[in-house]
Amino acid sequence: MNMNEGVKTAVRTVNLFEAFARRKGPMTLTQVAEALSAPISSCHGLVRTLSAMGYLYTSEQTREIYPTKRLLEIATVIADHDPVLESVVPILEQLRDETQETILLGRRQGQAIIYLDVIEGPQTVRYSAGVGEMKPMHSSAIGKAFLGRLDLGERIALIARLPLDEMTETTITAREALAADIAAGAEKGYFVTRGENVADVMGLATTADIHGDIFGVAIAAPLTRIEPHLEEQAARLLAARDRLEALGGSL
Fold first, then answer.
1. Who's near 194: CB < 8 A, 6+ residues apart?
2. Is 251 among the domain residues?
3. Deepest in the core among 63, 160, 194, 246, taking most CB within 10 A?
4. Do 32 and 115 share a domain, yes or no?
5. What is the pLDDT at residue 171?
6. Top-confidence residue, 211 or 214
């Protein structure tokens, strides 16, 4: 198997499990092929391999395919021993309890932000997101926080390269306006989005140096609920940042 084939197989494997998550039920081989936009022959080989490894099973009566709990068990062990999450989650949960809102932990991945953990708030109406979701730098609060860490020259150069897609009606798509917004956030120590990535959702974010690496932390909530208490919530965010940075150096 050459590298391109290996990459294609890896992507197809991940897409298969995501397809099951979306469907929330079993699929026939034909439905798997449709979900992956792939030939039935290729899907048959993938299903056969994953079944032999214990990740899928097939009903003898309906011939429908569904994942076993093997993937869940492995994922649980991995998550339970994440060296960063083990130490930071108690602090993020404390911030969730203080703010009563959803808390996000993210990292920069190239020109995007990936969510590493999402701790949802207790409110009935709240912001929800999935671990592993990718967000644009220019329209997400954590993305702005990472832009704010850069030296001015690096920041301007990156803003010039970013595709400033219009995610909502209030997304900042003018490069000079985005640069000014980031500069204002850098002065305050935290960065704000007002419905720029998800309509009617407000985000407050900062970055923290944790175990020798840089992470973004954000509070996300309905705009109308958080804006009247912006300064109060920002103070809680910055206090949580200080607690995270007090965790120490490298693991």
1. 170, 202, 223, 227
2. no
3. 194
4. no
5. 98
6. 214
Whether 250 maps to a domain, the answer reads no
Give the phi and the psi of residue 167 in degrees, each rounded to 5: -80, -35
Single residue among 49, 73, 97 that ends a domain in this structure = 73
Please state whether beta strands 191-194 and 201-210 pair in parallel, antiparallel, or not at all (unpaired): antiparallel
Are 12 and 91 part of one and the same domain?
Answer: no
How many CA atoms, within 13 angstroms, populate the side-chain half-sphere of residue 195?
10
Is pLDDT at 248 greater than 70 in this prediction?
Answer: no
Q: Which of 73, 103, 128 is the last residue of a domain?
A: 73
**What's the CA gap between 138 and 127, in Å, rounded?**
19
Please check the confidence at residue 80 and state whether its pLDDT lies above 90.
no
Assigned domain for 44 exists: yes
**Helix segments in the chain, DSSP class H:** 3-23, 29-36, 40-52, 70-80, 83-99, 141-149, 152-161, 175-188, 223-226, 230-245
User: Which neighbouring-strand residues pair with 136?
Assistant: 112
120 and 198: one domain? yes
